[in-house]
Structures are given as C-alpha cells and as structure tokens.
Amino acid sequence: MMKPSMLRSLHSAATRGASHLSRRGYASEPVPERKVAVLGAAGGIGQPLSLLMKLNPLVSSLSLYDIAGTPGVAADVSHINTGSEVVGYQGDEELGKALEGADVVIIPAGVPRKPGMTRDDLFNINAGIVKTLCTAIAKYCPHALVNMISNPVNSTVPIAAEVFKKAGTYDEKRLFGVTTLDVVRAKTFYAGKANVPVAGVNVPVVGGHAGITILPLFSQATPKANLDDDVIKALTKRTQDGGTEVVEAKAGKGSATLSMAYAGALFADACLKGLNGVPDVVECSFVQSTVTELPYFASKVRLGKNGVEEVLGLGPLSDFEQQGLESLKPELKSSIEKGIKFANQ
C-alpha cells in the first residue's frame, strides 16, 4: 500500500512542475495551455496513463476517448485536485470532439497480448483500430504530435504514416512510436546488475519495439560498469523479452499495462516540454529515419517545438551490438512493409 507521505510527494511533484519549468529560463512566460487526448482511455494502459497525465502540470485539458466506459474513467480522474480539465468522450460519433484542438494525441487503443500471442498475432485487430483513429486525427487535429503505443508499433507507425499521407497531412516530425518502455526496462535491469542507483542510469535503446528488433546499447550505458559479456547478453535478452515476462507472470490476465502507462506518460511529458521550448529534450523513439537503410528506426531523438528537431545517430557500437543490429534489420523491414501494405489495401 502506498504511504500517505508518498502520495503527498507525488502530488507536490505534480503541482511544482510548472515552477520547475519556469526556473529553466521561462520565468517571464506563462506555461502554454496544452490539450492532450488519450485514445483508448478506458483500457488497461489507458486508465493509469490518464491518471498520470492528470498529474502532469503541463496539461491544461485532458480529453479521454474510448468506444465504451469513458464517462466513468473521466469522472474518476476529474476528481483529482490538479489543474487540468477532464472531459470523457465515448463512441465513434464523439471521436472528432475528443480530438479537436489536441496538441498531443496518445494512442494506447487496441487489444492486449495474451499468453502464447506474439505481437504479430495482434496485427489485424490493432491495425484496423489504428487506421480508423488516424483517419480521424488527420481530419480533426492534423498538426498534433501523435504518440503511438498500440502494438505492433513496428507496423502501426507505418500504417499511421500512410493514412496521413493519403489525407495530405503527413509530417514525419510529428509521428512517434513510443519505445520508452524498452528504455525503462533496460535502465532498471542494468541498474540491478551494475549495482548503481537506477535514477542516474541512462541506456539508449534502438531498432524497433518487438523481440530481437529491440537493441539496448549497454556499451553506451551510464554510469559505466564493467559487466561481463554473458551478463550483457542476458540483459539484452531480458529487455527484448520484457513484455513476455509480464504476460506470463500475469498468467493470462493481462500484459504490461502499468509500466507501459508510466513509459507513455514519460514520453508524452518529453513531447510537451519540447513543444514548450525546453532545451535539450532527448528521448528514444521509433520515427521516420535515415540512420539506417530502413525507412523507420528507433534511436535517440531531440524534441522541440515542431516535434522531431533532430534524429541522432547510433554512436559507437560493440561487436555484439553491431551483430544485433544486422540481425534485427530483416524482421523490422518485414514489419514495416506489412504495415504499409495493410494501410494501402
């Protein structure tokens, strides 16, 4: 059970956030009003994600949408005493109202993985949902930053891009595949093995967002730790299989919802900071890229007022990471092409 002191700390951190922003060079400027829309807000990821976005002081308007159950979630979240206004929208006919004026759209909508399912098994259901939602985004908030959580991200990001291209609204700087959970896991697992405080750990994770396409660059991890090669290989495998670890631990009753909501909220916060002009906001994300020969690739991205300001290179790789990079390319290429094909059917 969370102690009252921890709850007070969480709340005070949320309410202090705006003043923290001011101290970073924006004291004379009010924090801009920002609308964030969560599509799939009544789901296993959507509910805790909605809670975390309600705690974010950079959000002035929180728009919660799902096909059912949203009014209850919105009512529940709206009672939290932070500054943002919350409105719930339900059903196809209210999707447009949910999206109008959104600065950031977060999409956790879709069905979760069950034991024995691969991310690929989810494809037809979630791909159809993403296509429908992105068609609406193109119409009602074409300039929003779109944060794609719905799996398989390696395919749903290309689907979204093709939908936006058809609508004439595509901007590669404004479409992100959220791979932050891979980074969160890599940091946690590395800190445990390196015996260092996790708060100070950084590990870039590149490639994609499924199985072997997830490539944590432990050779670039900070603080440095002289871990044996077999430990690095085990850490890499655990990061790649993190989702499966949770699915199996929940024994058929869910997938990674809480950690994914946390990761989604972290990335959305980075997007909002970038929009507000906070300097040097860098996160890993699956975006349109020329870092490799593949059209989309996850790497470090500098965020700013236009979304992607710069896609950063991979940096020096160990022999093990270079081998992993070459191994992941065929699978990632196949997933990207599958998404493009689906969108153009």
UniProtKB/TrEMBL annotation:
One of its GO terms (molecular function) is L-malate dehydrogenase (NAD+) activity. Keywords: Mitochondrion, NAD, Oxidoreductase, Transit peptide, Tricarboxylic acid cycle. Its main location: mitochondrion. Residues 1-27 are annotated as: Disordered. PROSITE patterns: MDH. The active site is at residue 209. Residues 35-177 form the Lactate/malate dehydrogenase N-terminal domain. Residues 179-342 form the Lactate/malate dehydrogenase C-terminal domain. Coiled coil: none annotated. It holds the Pfam family Ldh_1_C. NAD(+) binds at residues 40-46, 66, 126, 149-151, 260. The keyword NAD applies. GO terms for biological process: malate metabolic process; tricarboxylic acid cycle. It catalyses: (S)-malate + NAD(+) = oxaloacetate + NADH + H(+). Its EC number is 1.1.1.37. It is found in: Mitochondrion matrix. Substrate binds at residues 113, 119, 151, 185. GO terms for cellular component: cytoplasm; mitochondrial matrix; mitochondrion. Belongs to the LDH/MDH superfamily. MDH type 1 family. Homodimer. PANTHER family: MALATE AND LACTATE DEHYDROGENASE, MALATE DEHYDROGENASE 1, MITOCHONDRIAL-RELATED. This is Malate dehydrogenase. It comes from Glycine max (Soybean). The lineage of its organism: Eukaryota, Viridiplantae, Streptophyta, Embryophyta, Tracheophyta.
